[in-house]
Amino acid sequence: MIKGLMTGVAAFALMAGMAHAQDRKVNVYNWSDYIDESILTDFTAETGIDVVYDVFDSNEILETKLLAGGTGYDVVVPTGTFLSRQIQAGVFMPLDKSKLPNLSNMWPDIEERVEKYDPGNAYSINYMWGTTGIGINVEKVKEALGADAPLDTWDIVFDPEQLQKLQGCGVHMLDAPAEMIPAALNYLGLDPNSKDVADIEKAGELLKSVRPYIQKFHSSEYINALANGDICLAVGWSGDILQARDRAAEADNGVTVEYIIPKEGAQMWFDQMAIPADARNKEEAHEFLNYIMRPEVMAKASNYVYYANGNAASKEFLNDDVIGDPAIYPSDETVANLFTVTAYDPRIQRVVTRTWTAVKSGQ
Length: 363
Hints:
D-Maltodextrin-Binding Protein, domain 2; 2 domains; six-stranded mixed beta sheet; polyamine binding
């Protein structure tokens, strides 16, 4: 009887353990259209950890959920400027680096830049980095502005006379004040990282001056709109515009899309993977991050989304049209002309939000 009972208990414990192993999962919240989905299925096949994958399209949406708490997510992907204040708010847990041996693959130069947002790289790993610039339909823009008009400049966005000429063929702008206000400040010759209220208001006035010619503000629609020839200019993220370029080329629809890093400079940004402090599946989250940091995995992600990544060891696995494209991996000279910004404190953030609302409403 006792032996049978013990055998039954052992069997039950084994079955419970197997059930628990089968139930392992990681809940990931990432930007839309931002990973090769085969990475997720390969991870599950290798580890037995199911990936529950949700997407968002703005840092503001992610931050609202994180600050409210109880998101249910185990891995999230904020941009560095937002990450820094979320760290200060206690949103994330420090990474257990003993569980992340693939950290040795990361790129020291990128880690050094990210330390502005995450001192000691204690809370996050870099997933992708890139720039915020201008995407154009080359033929339509030249037709509207003139064949010899310089296109490597923010003038085509922030000069009302020039943008008005592009109104007829369609202009989209990022619905992202943390991107657009620094770009406007830089164009005005002011510090793009300024936290001065008067400076932010000047940027707002500049943006209001071109507001009548902007068809739409959003965070993702411009990819297809550019690729299909529905618009001729978009201020957007480098990888998105390069995806539009390639979709147009694949469709062979007569649309030529080009990505421009303006000569006046552009913002360099970093999207970081981090683990919320209230994550339920912390062990699985670490396994997911360590898997992502494999060189061939990170390269597969970059080859899909056309963004540079912070993994130095991945370079040998990148497609030639990724590693060899200066719009994705800019030259040292171009990088020297890029700027980064830090997070706004709550008081200045209210000014920024109010300014951006006024810009979008045209008031």
